[in-house]
Design brief:
199 residues, 0% strand, 71% helix
Length: 199
């Protein structure tokens, strides 16, 4: 009986791994796919359909040679690999069955997050999108923190501060979106340096 239950459970998990994004409206719009993927990751704890939507968006952006759209999709994939959805109740199934990006494993998910953030970073850097670079570098830093690589985290936080300054120089008066409790990016960056021992 125990073996039957284990086999039945495994079959159910395998079916869920391969299933479509039930309850998510179908769309050909890659931006909408990324919005749906973010919702599936952040609100619904459904990493498998989220990854499928991200990959579909990447293919559409590539086919359309939409580099900024592709950068957004790569960034979303970076968030995906370090998301709570990946580390939550689906972690055992993802360890067993892997990801749709077959070069990733559960144990290398943070390195894969870094890889996708860096793909986005390359595009944003080439196009001098300093507002996006501020966010990408910041999130590279947070991913390095999860990997316990504090020197790399500090370097990424510093790059984020430089990108922020350049964006502010080029776009004076731009509204800052900051974490709660901080009145300026400079105060947030000072907090990060103190927290993670950056010089």
């Amino acid at each position: 009986m125990g073996l039957y239950r284990a086999g039945a459970l495994s079959a159910c998990v395998a079916a869920l791994i391969g299933c479509a994004a039930v309850g998510v409206p179908a769309t050909a719009d890659p931006a909408a796919k990324l919005d749906d993927a973010a919702n599936l990751m952040d609100q619904q704890d459904r990493p498998v359909p989220a990854e499928r939507l991200i990959r579909e968006a990447i293919e559409i952006y590539r086919a359309n040679d939409d580099q900024l759209g592709l950068a957004r999709a790569y960034s979303t994939y970076g968030f995906f690999f370090r998301s709570r959805a990946v580390e939550g109740k689906w972690s055992s199934a993802l360890r067993k069955h892997g990801f749709q990006d077959t070069s990733a494993t559960y144990d290398t998910r943070y390195a894969k997050s870094i890889e996708y953030f860096n793909r986005a970073r390359t595009i944003y850097s080439e196009r001098e999108q300093f507002d996006a670079l501020t966010n990408i570098d910041l999130n590279l830093g947070f991913t390095y923190v999860l990997m316990a690589d504090l020197p790399a985290a500090c370097s990424a936080f510093g790059a984020s501060a430089l990108a922020f300054q350049e964006n502010a120089r080029r776009n004076p008066g731009t509204k800052q979106v900051l974490p709660e409790g901080f009145s300026s990016f400079e105060s947030f960056y000072s907090y990060l340096k103190a927290r993670y021992g950056c010089t």
